[in-house]
Structure formats: structure tokens, C-alpha cells
From TrEMBL:
Organism per entry: Neodiprion lecontei
One Pfam family in the UniProt entry: CBFD_NFYB_HMF
Aminoacyl-tRNA synthetase among keywords: no
Name of the protein this chain belongs to: DNA polymerase epsilon subunit 3
Main location per the UniProt record: nucleus
Entry's localization field: Nucleus
Region called Disordered, residue ranges: 93-125
Length: 125
């Protein structure tokens, strides 16, 4: 758990980048508004996490899953976020699988290369 209340806040640089990407060019946001958005986002995340944790506990689990977060979004009636969240979760799973497959392929290629090198060394003797 966080030692200080400030530890629960999102990093200002991240919040600023997200806000700037969301606004049209030429539109600025004041320091107070940026702080308010950061605080609201932090509170929202804590609320979703708490709700998802309750869902996980009902399922007799200690780990919150992506499905728990989706159910939490439904439970707190933020249905407009369901589709984008489900898409983001699918994209995340897909990218994780691609990374895993690439790692497996690299390891297999390295193993194959070592076997070929071993055979070449044996033939040279």
C-alpha cells in the first residue's frame, strides 16, 4: 500500500501528455485543471480497482484480472467504456502473445545455431 497519499497520484508528465493528446491544437490547460484531472483519474482508478478487487474476492481469487476490471466497469455503470476497454485488452493480449512467440522463436533459432556450430566443430576434428 502507498505510504503517502501523494503516492496514489498519477505522474504529472503522463497526465499532461494524455491531456495534450486529447485536446485540439492550440488549446491549453491550466495548472489547476491539470491537477484536477490527475486527481479525478487517480480516484477513478482507485474506485475501479476496489470494485474489481471485490469481484475477484467473490471468485475466491487474490489477483485482479482484466475480466474483473471489465465487470467492474459494468457494475459501476460506465458502459460507454466497455467496448474500448475490451478492444484495448484484446490488443494487449495479442501483443503479449506476439512478444512471447518472438522470444520462443529467438530461443529456438539460437539453439539451432548452437547445434549447427557443434556439428561443424565435430566435423572439423
Amino acid at each position: 500500500m502507498a505510504e503517502r497519499l501523494e503516492d496514489l497520484n498519477l505522474p504529472n508528465a503522463v497526465v499532461t501528455r494524455i491531456i495534450k493528446e486529447s485536446l485540439p491544437d492550440g488549446v491549453n490547460i491550466g495548472k489547476e485543471a491539470r491537477a484536477a484531472v490527475a486527481k479525478a483519474a487517480s480516484i477513478f482508478i482507485l474506485y475501479i480497482t476496489s470494485t474489481a478487487n471485490t469481484i475477484a474476492k467473490k471468485g475466491k481469487r487474490k489477483t485482479i484480472s482484466g475480466t474483473d476490471v471489465i465487470q467492474a466497469i459494468e457494475e459501476i455503470e460506465f458502459d460507454q467504456f466497455l467496448e474500448p476497454l475490451q478492444e484495448a485488452l484484446e490488443n494487449f493480449k495479442k501483443s503479449q502473445k506476439e512478444k512471447k512467440d518472438a522470444t520462443t522463436k529467438r530461443k529456438q533459432q539460437k539453439k539451432d545455431d548452437e547445434e549447427v556450430e557443434e556439428i561443424v566443430c565435430e566435423d572439423a576434428e
